[in-house]
Design a protein that fits this description.
transferase, plasmid, Rossmann fold, alpha/beta, hydrolase, 22 strands, elongated, 9-stranded mixed sheet
């Protein structure tokens, strides 16, 4: 969603954080005062320093005025990111000797003297260095010195007008520790960027930012995930599928299994997603890998996001089934990323998928599995909506998406943690059944939006030759209940499995 009543077509300046510039659709209006607010540890200093470094790269002088942190602390932050702050002026407003007893007086209220001296010190420093970009850290100190909202507001307004006359672009930082609900600055600032740090019950903290207001600029509203990495802040703009579309061929592609192609009607269509659902061990991952191999053999690029198991286990099992993935990883066709879902935000995952599709030309994406992805982020109430947006994006990019969803139980009523089948264009149902004293596997397609699919049930086996899908079996009942009943002998039943078969998902 984008906000603004009227838009400024004038010049913009970059913040130095590319994801934030994308959200702002080009950057900030120069010579304005902006509020950067967030609790301690949310990344304000890192973002502000990057803002000054971007100015230095453009030949603009920068000034960092600190009322709370020391120069050594700022230099330490810079070193942690590999930055050199040469030619950026760092100024501590309060020198160490100013805290001595000799500097105390009793004739005037301390706040009257200290507030005026502080503001005067800021003005003198700006006049002496003539910066183009200024960071003032932090306003909490000024708020405490002012002691009442009127004096505080008047001083901030005075600073704002002073900076405007000198054509300075200013970031003022506020750690929201004095009065978290104070909106005085929101009304004064030209724009407000809010940073948040959220702690989950398990896993890493999550960070997100929101552009609260930005006068005269078109920007992307809502929350956007970000992380603090070596080199600065990485912002992952919220994915809006309608902003991304490209032309692609809609001709169906084979899964590499004639029996599965027959079940699907014509195979898999570019720009659609398929959901493989069933109990653990029935063969969902193996079926997805077989479809992946078919695409790789056609020369397409693919991305595989592995949430559930270890990468080494997937590689070993696939090789044992005659589907070696290593050559495709080596030649750059296949990117497999093992993801610790407790460490990843939805925005970062969506950004990784975008990079794979737009920069690495992936035309097949596998998400294995949705259970781990959805469970890892219980605090994200709109995770299914984010998944809907991601699938819409992949559809508009002409990508074939394969999603795996595990179900609880093996026989009887099977239960899913989340019903995401309504998002799927195709749903493949994999089930166990019993016949002739053996546990066997069946596959059927219960939904496809792109073709008239086969409404039958086929048995399949997994062995050292890969996957084999048999002919349609008709003597079934109760498949959708989760407990298929094989009623009487059927010539389409496949030969009994022997002990050298390789089971596995």
């Amino acid at each position: 969603m984008e906000h603004s009543t009227h838009f400024d077509a004038g010049p913009r300046i970059a913040t130095g954080t590319s994801g934030l510039d994308t959200i702002l659709q080009g950057g900030l209006t120069p010579s304005r005062l902006y509020l950067l607010e967030g609790t301690p540890g949310s990344g304000k200093t890192t973002l502000a320093l990057k803002f000054l470094l971007e100015g230095r790269a453009s030949g603009e002088r920068g000034l960092y005025i600190t009322l709370s942190e020391t120069e050594d602390e700022l230099l330490a932050v810079a070193r942690s990111h590999g930055w050199d702050l040469a030619n950026i002026d760092l100024f501590e407003m309060i020198a160490e000797d100013e805290f001595g007893i000799a500097n105390e007086q009793s004739l005037l209220h301390p706040s009257d003297v200290e507030l005026g001296e502080t503001v005067r010190g800021v003005i003198e420093r700006v006049e002496a260095t003539a910066p183009v970009r200024v960071v003032l850290d932090s306003l909490s100190e000024l708020r405490l010195l002012a002691q009442n909202p009127l004096r505080y507001r008047r001083q901030i307004l005075a600073l704002k007008h002073f900076f405007a006359r000198r054509n300075c672009t200013v970031f003022v930082l506020d750690d929201r520790t004095a009065e978290p609900e104070d909106l005085q600055l929101h009304s004064i600032a030209h724009g407000v960027i809010s940073l948040e740090q959220l702690a989950n019950d398990f896993g890493a903290e999550r960070r997100r930012l929101r552009v609260v207001k930005m006068r005269g600029l078109k920007y992307r509203g809502g929350y956007h995930d970000f992380t603090i990495e070596h080199g600065g802040i990485c912002v992952y703009p919220r994915l809006v599928a309608s902003d991304h579309h490209r032309s692609f061929s809609v001709e169906p592609v084979t899964t590499g299994l004639p029996g599965l192609d027959a079940l699907l009607g014509d195979g898999l269509n570019p720009g659609t997603n398929a959901l493989l659902t069933g109990p653990a061990g029935v063969g969902k991952t193996t079926t997805a890998v077989r479809c992946l191999i078919a695409a790789l053999k056609r020369g397409q690029n693919a991305a595989y996001y592995l949430f559930d198991e270890r990468l080494s286990t997937l590689m070993l099992r696939s090789r044992a089934l005659g589907m070696d993935l290593q050559p495709y990883i080596d030649n750059g066709q296949l990117m497999i990323r093992q993801i610790d879902p407790a460490e990843l935000s939805p925005g970062e995952f969506a950004s990784a998928v975008r990079v794979a599709v737009e920069e690495d030309s992936a035309t097949v994406v596998v998400i294995d599995s949705l259970n781990a992805y959805l469970h890892a982020m219980p605090s994200d109430n709109f995770l299914v909506l984010q998944m809907h947006e991601l699938l819409s994006y992949l559809s508009q990019q002409g990508v074939v998406t394969l999603m795996i969803l595990g179900q609880h139980g093996v026989m009887g009523e099977l239960r899913s943690d989340v019903d995401i089948s309504y998002l799927a264009d195709t749903v493949m149902l994999l089930r166990f059944f019993e016949a002739q004293g053996q546990v066997r596997k069946s596959i059927s397609v219960i939904k496809t939006r792109t073709s008239d699919h086969e409404r039958t049930i086929r048995e399949f086996t997994i062995d050292r030759q890969g996957i084999t899908i048999g002919e349609p079996i008709h003597n079934f009942s109760g498949l959708l209940s989760g407990s298929p009943v094989y009623q009487r002998p059927d010539p389409a039943l496949m030969p009994a499995q022997t002990s050298d078969r390789v089971a596995g998902e």
